[in-house]
C-alpha cells in the first residue's frame, strides 16, 4: 500500500474533500442569477477574510496575474515606486512593474530578514517632491518564510499619500491581514494557498484610493481592468469575462468552512502548526532560517544540514513516504528546504512530515535520535489543547 | 420533480460527468513530474484538436485574456492591424488591441454575414509599404452564429507577410480549424466551450512566425508572456505560474473522450445537431439569422418573432422547462435568441430545447402546430443514422 500523499508545499495546498467535490457540480451560465449568488457569497466570505469593506475582485488567473493587475490598474509608465524586496517574490513583484515601464526603486533586505521600516521611512522623507507613487510589498515572503508587517508601512503610505500594494498570495487566511485597519490599498491573493481551493482564481481587494488612482493611470489592461470589474459588480454582480465557476464552487465551500471555524481560530491553528514544526526542527538539531518574531505561519524554511544533499532529502521524502516538500530560490537554492503548512493542513500531516524528515536525515548520515522531532511537535499539540 | 437543467448556451457548456469528477481529484504540486505528465497529455490532445505541430500554450485565464495575450505578445504600440469585424466579438478583439495602443483599422461587415475576402485582399494590396502587421479575425462569431473561413485569410496573410491572429474561442473542436494547413499564427480558445471543461483555462496555439514577431514586439506582458511560457515548456514542460490543475484534470478527460470519438466524428456530430436545430426552427416558422453556407455548427441565432418578447421567451424556457438559451448583443439585442450546441450536447438536449421553445411560443400566442419542430429534428437524426 502506498502512503497517502502529504502535500506540504507553500501552494498548491490540499483541498478539503467537500470543497473538491463541490467543484464537480454541474456548470451554470455565468450571466444567470444563480451565478451572481455564487459570486456574491464568495465575495462576502472574502471580505470577512480580508477584513475589509473594500471591493474584492475575483480574477481568473494565478497570483502572478493578480500582481500584474495591481500594477497595470494603478500606475502609469514612468511612475516611481518603492519595492521592498525580502526574497524571490519581492523580486518578482519588482520585475513585473519594470516590465510595464514603471520606474522601480528596490530597497533590498537580506533574505531571511524582514523589511526594516526605518529604511522605508527615511526614503519617503527624502522624497520631498512626492515622486513616489506606490510601495510594493510582500506580506509573506514565500521563498524565505518571513512575514513583513504591513501595519507600519500602511501608516507611512497614508502619511506620504502613496499607494500600498501588497502581495498577500501566501499569507491571506494563514497570516492575519487587516486590510482596512492597516491601510492596504491593493492586496492580492490566490485560491490555491490558505484559501484551500484549486489554483486558477486570484482575489484582489481594492481600496477607493486605488480605484481613484486607476482613473489617471495609463498602463494598458483590458482583461483584468479593475474598473471594468467594479462596474460589473455594481451593475449586477457579475464578472466581465466568464469566471472559473468550478473553482468558485470549491472556494465557496472552503470559505464556509473557514467562517464556521472562525477567522481567529484559523490563525490560531496556523500558529500551533508552525510552532510544532519549528520546535521539531530544533529538537532534531536543524537550524531555522528565520527568527521567531518574523516567522511565517504558512511556510517554514530550514537549513539543509551539511550531511545531506537537498535534492536527495526532497526526493527520498517523496518517494519513500509520499511527503512533498520543496526548496527555495535564488541565493537560497539548495541551502534551505521549505515546508508549507497553510490551509487544510492537519496535525497528522505535520507528524507524517516530521517522521519522514527524521527517517531520511538519519538514513543519509545525519545524527539524530529518532522521534525527538515527533515528541517536540506532539508536546506543542498537547500543551495547546490543555490550555 | 424539477426538469434536469439543459444548458444550451454558447459557453459555458455542459461537462461530461467523468470530466467533472476528474476535476475533484486531489491537487498535486505544479513543479512535480506528475504535473508535467498532466500538462503534456493535455497539450498533445490540444495539438490533435488544433491540427497543429505548433506549441499550444496553456494560460490560466478566460478567452478574453487569451485574446489580450495574443495582442500583447506579438505587437508594438502604434503597429497597424486590420480587424475583421462581423459581430460583438470581432468588435471586442479590436477594442482590446486599441486599449494597448495598437492602430486598429476595422473592416466592418453586416452582423449575420461573413467576412468578404475580397475586401481584405483589396486592403492588403493597397498597403504598398507593408504597414499592416497583423489581421485579427473571429473564426466563429458567437454573437451572430457566423463562421468566417480562415483559409483564404491565411493565404492572404502569408502572401503579404502579416500575422493572422484568430479568435477561435467558440469554434475550436466544434468547427474545423486547420491551424497549420491554413496558416493561422495565433489561435485562441478556452476550456468552457467545445472542449467540454470548466471555465478558467485558455489554450493558445502559437506559430514560430508569431514567436519571432514577439521578439521585436514591445507591448508589456509578464503573466501571459508567450516567451516565458515557451521557455518553460522547453525546459521541463511546466508553466511559469501555477496552472489551474483541477481544470486540467477535467480537460485531460474531455480530450481523451474526443480522441476516442475521433475529431471528424466530433465535427460530424456538431453538424447533425446544427442541422436538426435549423430544420426545427424552419418547421416551426421561425427565421434563421444566418444562411446555411456560413452557419456556425456551435451556435445558432434565430429571429425573435413579432408575437413574443425575447425576455419572456428566455425566462419562460428557463423557469418552466429548465432550458437555458440566451440573447445577443449590440444591434441584435432583443431581436434574436441564440441556442448554443457545442461540446457535450446530446440529441435529447436538442429535443428538450425544441419542445420547450414550441411550448413557450404557443403559450405566447405564436401560431404553430406543436411537434413540428420535434418532428423535423428527429427526421434529421433518423436520416443521419440510416446513412
From TrEMBL, chains A, B:
Pfam families referenced in this protein's UniProt entry, alphabetically: Aminotran_5
Leader peptide range in chain numbering: none
Cofactor section: pyridoxal 5'-phosphate
Chain positions found as N6-(pyridoxal phosphate)lysine: 193
GO biological process: glycine biosynthetic process, by transamination of glyoxylate
Domain of life: Bacteria
Positions with a binding annotation for substrate: 338
Gene3D superfamilies linked to this entry: Aspartate Aminotransferase, domain 1, Type I PLP-dependent aspartate aminotransferase-like (Major domain)
Ranges of residues in domain Aminotransferase class V: 31-325
GO molecular function: alanine-glyoxylate transaminase activity; L-serine-pyruvate transaminase activity
Residue ranges of the TM segments: none
Keyword check for Transferase: yes
Family statement drawn from the similarity comment of this UniProt entry: Belongs to the class-V pyridoxal-phosphate-dependent aminotransferase family.
Protein name: Aspartate aminotransferase
Annotated source species: Selenihalanaerobacter shriftii
